[in-house]
Write a structure and sequence with these properties.
The complex is a heterodimer of chains A (123) and B (364).
Chain A: E1 2-5, E2 10-15, E3 18-23, H1 25-31, E4 34-38, E5 45-46, E6 51-57, E7 61-65, E8 70-75, H2 77-81, H3 85-88, E9 97-101, H4 113-122
Antiparallel strand pairs in A: 1-2, 2-3, 3-9, 4-6, 5-8, 6-7, 8-9
Chain B: E1 2-4, E2 7-9, H1 17-26, E3 28-32, E4 37-42, H2 46-51, E5 66-72, E6 78-88, E7 91-96, H3 101-112, E8 117-120, E9 124-130, H4 134-141, E10 153-158, E11 161-166, E12 175-181, H5 182-193, E13 198-200, H6 203-212, H7 254-268, E14 279-286, E15 297-299, E16 305-315, E17 320-328, E18 337-342, E19 345-352
Parallel strand pairs in B: 3-13
Antiparallel strand pairs in B: 1-2, 3-9, 4-7, 4-8, 5-6, 6-7, 9-12, 10-11, 11-12, 14-17, 14-19, 15-16, 15-18, 16-17, 18-19
Helix pairs in contact in B: 1-6
The chains are: A alpha+beta (123), B alpha+beta (364).
């Protein structure tokens, strides 16, 4: 299992040909209190970089970009019911969706934790 | 911190917007609103002169009292909304929006500068203490201040600091706005923050509080393209300035504003003149738990464009998505269903009465 990060502040936890996606601690901190998430439909396919969802806080709305190409296999219904999970537990209970990867090699180009932390601290 | 009207302003403090909003509704929040413009109009003719700029009763406002006013342009469009206070002795104290203050001063000076002395007060700061525990906190530092009722005020000492306070604000809560010399502002803010009920609150929560209270934000909900009647601010036009009143008209845009007012009044009897009054500001509640934000298109269920959202978010106290916007007059009755187009998807909304959260002003 490897966890990678994007410059759009998503995290991707991949194992085999599947991955779980959420937003980073830095992202939820910047957004503030999350009040709504718009999750993609299960079965829908997205290319890397496409908008797959939206997360809204009291102060702003932000797109959630697809970190890797693939098909949505599951969305986090608990997060839909309680969007504040994105604040309280962004890396576990606050996950957004699961993806069947169409090009696992895309993972290699994403950021590792140290590189992301440095990027987030500077952005 | 964000740049706003030439100032660097806190959007939120570490507690976050939601916690700040709730703290203001439950206890007391301190807002630094020093970016707002403060000025005095001085002279025996000041009230009569100021009244020529607004569809508002200035002349009859008693000393010690405050009122909401609207500067209009010749088309009846709103140049700014403001608060004014009769200090007595021919002196009117005025608070205007920060982003408008330079233009307001020039406008007032140009229009009535020969009839009264227009005195900007750039060396004054403005603090707002808002919430159900604001009076108790402030009275500890300024005994007797709790006797002011909503929209009254006067000169006070707060912990020994000379200030001018009114019992008013822009959150829908009981509270005070406090004008103080800039050099004393830091000390006054620290005194207020030392009270156990008081926490600092940023601009973000000020926005969500005023929206739940149904209050307009200049630049969002009202501007030079909207008239007082379109903005549903008829309550701010006292009878004395309306058709048949003792001092009817005589303000910029009189013909248009009074015609729209007549159309709105006829509308109460079911005969709205939709050509004279094409649109109105209304409250809107989304029927799904999706925030509907500023700039969102509003449509009828037949797909016809009928308006636009001018302010919107998930109300932290209302605990549902609330918004204000303009709709064609035919869609302005409370209970009317419309749809907002959010990211291409229709979200059903219902026209609602305002405010979304009951006001708790202290009227004695």
């Amino acid at each position: 299992m490897s966890i990678k990060y994007t410059k759009d502040h998503e995290w991707v936890s991949a194992e085999g040909g599947a991955a779980t996606v959420g937003i980073t601690v830095h992202a939820q901190d910047a957004l503030g209190d999350v009040v709504f998430v718009d999750l993609p439909e299960v079965g829908k396919t997205f290319a890397q970089g496409e908008v797959a969802g939206v997360v809204e806080s009291v102060k702003a709305a932000a797109d959630v970009f697809m970190p890797v190409s693939g098909e949505i296999t599951e969305v986090n219904e608990a997060l839909r019911a309680d969007p504040s999970l994105a604040n309280t537990d962004p890396l576990a209970a606050g996950w957004f969706f699961k993806v069947k990867l169409s090009d696992p090699a895309q993972l290699d180009a994403l950021l590792d934790a140290a590189t992301y932390d440095k990027f987030a601290a500077e952005s | 911190m964000v740049p706003f009207a030439g100032y660097s302003m806190p959007v939120q403090y570490p507690a976050g917007l939601m916690a700040e909003h709730k703290h203001t509704r439950d206890a007391a929040g301190l807002f630094d609103i020093s970016h707002m413009g403060q000025l005095r109009l001085v002279g025996p003719d000041a009230a009569a002169a100021f009244e020529t700029l607004m569809p508002v009763d200035v002349i009859d406002l008693a000393p010690g009292k405050q009122r909401y006013g609207l500067l209009l342009n010749d088309d009846g469009g709103i140049l700014d909304d403001l608060m004014f206070f009769n200090e007595g002795h021919g002196s009117i104290f005025v608070i205007v929006n920060g982003a408008c203050k330079v233009a307001d001063l020039a406008h007032i000076q140009q229009k009535i500068g020969e009839r009264c002395d227009v005195q900007p007060m750039p060396d004054h700061a403005l603090l707002a203490l808002q919430g159900p525990q604001a009076a108790a906190a402030l009275a500890r530092l300024s005994p007797g201040i709790e006797r002011f009722v909503f929209m009254t005020g006067g000169t006070v000492q707060i912990g020994g600091i000379p200030a001018f306070a009114t019992r008013s604000g822009y959150t829908g809560e009981d509270g005070f706005e406090i004008s103080v010399a800039g050099q004393d502002a830091d000390a006054l803010a620290r005194l207020l923050l030392a009270q156990p009920e008081v926490k600092p609150i940023g601009l973000g929560a000020r926005n969500s509080l005023r929206l739940e209270a149904g209050l307009c934000l200049y630049g969002n909900d009202i501007d030079t393209t909207t008239t007082p009647v379109e903005a549903s601010l008829n309550w701010a036009i006292q009878k004395v300035r309306r058709a048949g009143g003792a001092r009817e008209g005589g303000f910029p845009g009189t013909a248009k504003v009074l015609a729209q007012l007549a159309a709105a009044t006829a509308g109460a009897a079911g005969r709205t003149d939709h050509d004279t009054l094409k649109r109105k500001r209304v409250g809107l509640v989304a029927l799904e738990r999706i925030p509907v934000r500023d700039g969102t298109l509003l449509q009828s269920f037949e797909g016809q464009d009928i308006g636009i959202v001018t302010s919107g978010l998930l109300g932290p106290t209302a605990d549902r998505p609330v918004a204000m916007g303009y709709v064609a007059t035919a869609f302005s009755e409370p209970g009317t269903r419309v749809q907002a187009i959010v990211r291409g998807k229709p979200v059903p909304m219902e026209v609602s009465t305002l405010p979304f959260v009951p006001a708790r002003y202290y009227r004695g």
